[in-house]
């Protein structure tokens, strides 16, 4: 069973951060259409700070399992947009699962999709159908939790569910967050928070895949 | 769009540093918490602390409303982004002088979550915190869902009422209820002639045709509710005022305070033309005008456009509005 | 360029009417002379009268500096055009309370001729009038011909000094000499990112390339002395400050007052970035900063750009600068 | 000898006003290059007010010779630019010549070119070579004062001198007025005040010509 140490967890964060950095402009444009155009900046800068603080903490000898709490603080301080407290709560929740562990079993990591979904739901109180990132995190969490399959397969399913959730937001009228003020005017646009959530989940899958080459349980 | 900036990523910090230097007699940053700006004069034992805040890009808000008779502290975020709980908590600790603290900030989910997190942390330190989430922007949601509305330039009135109430040593409960009333009686609506351009991109945050205006815009580059052809100043004033009066339904003889606010790059000449029309209309309706503010009080970078705010006064609110105060953006002797 | 105006030819009058309504507690027009704006509080027997004035388009100048501790009256012309002798004379008659009247206005030949004609008429009525023609714009003529320079945003300091001197009941001779000193010690230089657009044409009054700025512009759409590529805020601040310091040559320990002025559409964020650099540089030179003004104090319609003014203080000027005043554009408690 | 009554003097003002109105944009552009772009407005609005006040005064029965003082006040109140007091002084000076006359002999009117030159010189203190309207008014006044010729011929000469003076300003560096701040940068541009002065003089000639058909004295 592959164990990830702190450096490797930071590397996982880095994979996500890179994808979000690449999507910065695109996410900004999605947010520009129905919000305030800063979602690309928020996610890219937020994850960049997660990587930086995570790397510093790992260098100081922080345990792998404690890096999630470090990430939560970093994200919160870097991002003042709505996504700041939401992802901070997500990281916080995942951190509760692994607190104190010097290494984390690769097989355990898909579970953070469920943690993220719970942390975000607790803080934001949005529900599927509100046209938010919850339209991605909720179905992805369900897919990732199907016990009958191996971790990589569960991640694959989560990616598919995430993409479906993201695309479904196009047909929704926002009822939570900044875009809610546009009401029907938000119809026809993909929700930026849903788009970035799908990117995170796909990056997580790709970053974990090498450690999970065993495939189905 | 040309801008007088250095590295775009430094714009917010550099402008804040400039503000702290320019107004060093009035405000300062807390040591170790550069985004918590506090009043040098005003906070004192037994006085309710007033903490305001939100993103940068609205200069002179929020630091401009920190001072005696106004807020005790402001937490300032990055461009159009809420401050994190850290500086809000630091501002809270500074402002708490044993009588509790009132948070006042605009209704944006980022701000709500961050101020809530700070309030939870403050509660752990036994600081009594109440939150007033301002919702003056009538364009941002129908009247049936007033609680979903954005908080925008009307904040200036609400900050002023809060500062005066606390300055008169009213207890936390009283401060809270009077400020809640001020929020319920404040109405704002804005329109943009040109969008603003963030320093990072130096590009307009949305596109408007050469003859178009956007009605009902927010102060973070959010689109409004409808786009239309450029109209005259009087028609623009009427459009904003009609919507406001339709909700306020004042009686003849009522008093209001008026704010004609530049969203950033609209110069004084245009603002005063609007104000003139607003005054004509109010006079015709038999509504008294207690006082007027005209200028860049609550901006959205270099957006061209204007917002109109009316505070529907009652005698107590009128008295609080004219109480003395001293801050970078508002001084009443 | 989009503007919130009605008929372009009415813009100046409508804006002025708006200003009189907005600030009705402070100022009013003289009956029968709508372009003579006078202070409701301040003028009194035995006090030297301060009369300022010039064209419209510089809002909040000139009516914004009328009030107790500032000017007693202002005569306002059409857009960028001197008032004729009529309103200047009316302002003079109002301001004269037996101690004589001081005229203060920028050095433009239209203003000089019209104020001179008014002074001739006032002399016929036995009113003692002295004229101070301000010349703070260092870009507008070399130092050898200082008297040929334009008077621009530095006027704000000069008006303030004059208002305070008169408020302290100094006699006309003393007022004149202290204000002359203030003028001699005030230095301004500006640069434009975009020209302003008059209401009549709604077209930029000159052309600037997408990356160009114009250094040394006036406040009526006049071209500057040189055109160059857009530079950073710090470089812009340095460029203006270097020219000013080269003429002022202050000694270490000297005190200055600073005005970072928006020429119309440049928002606060950019002004404060400039101010920050100016403060850094002054600190490095060992020059003390008495006080700062940052904002649209003396505009040129919707020109984008900034001017920097420094007043080289001495103890008397410093005391006058911080004396209380109350006006639409400047209030010190 | 043709005598002009008040109505006819107003008509003469109207001829000038119309030409200046036609040149409003062109004069504004000249002033834009080296000044503040308002010279077209100043001259067109100023003369429009001269016509309006002149017509009102004539309707009230004001004598032809007193219309110049009326024009002076009108111009002064309408025009805050430098040209305001300058042309007000010019009209005032011409008014001294004709004060009280109910009619004015057409032959006498070319003399107002000299009056204008003096009134402007007294108020403005500019001299030929300073790149101002004086570069037109001074040579035109000299040409108009040559006693040996008839009034129409003198006006023709004044027009030629005015055009020459106007064109000469192109090669001058301004040393008076707003354009003086540009110094050498004003080189190569025609002075707007010189251009409008030449228009006034040509309009005066054309407006008077019908009354002077006699030609040479
Ligand atoms: N209450 C909420 N719960 C979950 N997600 C939310 C909530 N409100 C907004 N969002 C998500 O946040 C995204 C916007 O994030 P961002 O642009 O970073 O914040 P802001 O709107 O404050 O600028 C939306 O696209 C939406 O997916
Ligand atoms: N002292 C002066 N004497 C004569 N003419 C002058 C003088 N100063 C300026 N002028 C003329 O005035 C013209 C500018 O007039 P105008 O644009 O109406 O005034 P302003 O420069 O005040 O805007 C110049 O082109 C020049 O011919
Ligand atoms: Mg956003
Ligand atoms: Mg945002
Ligand atoms: Mg001009
Ligand atoms: Mg002019």
From TrEMBL, chains A, D:
* Sample GO molecular function, one term: glycerone kinase activity
Is the Disulfide bond keyword given for this protein?
Answer: no
Mind telling me which InterPro entries this protein's record contains? DhaK_L_YcgS (IPR012737), DhaL_dom (IPR004007), DhaL_dom_sf (IPR036117), Dihydroxyacetone_Kinase (IPR050861)
Q: Which one Pfam family would you cite for this protein?
A: Dak2
Q: What superkingdom heads the lineage? A: Bacteria
**Transferase keyword on record:** yes
This entry carries the following GO cellular component terms, namely: cytosol
Recite the UniProt keywords alphabetically.
Kinase, Transferase
Q: What is this protein called?
A: Dihydroxyacetone kinase subunit L
Q: Which organism is it from?
A: Fuscibacter oryzae
Q: Which gene encodes it?
A: dhaL
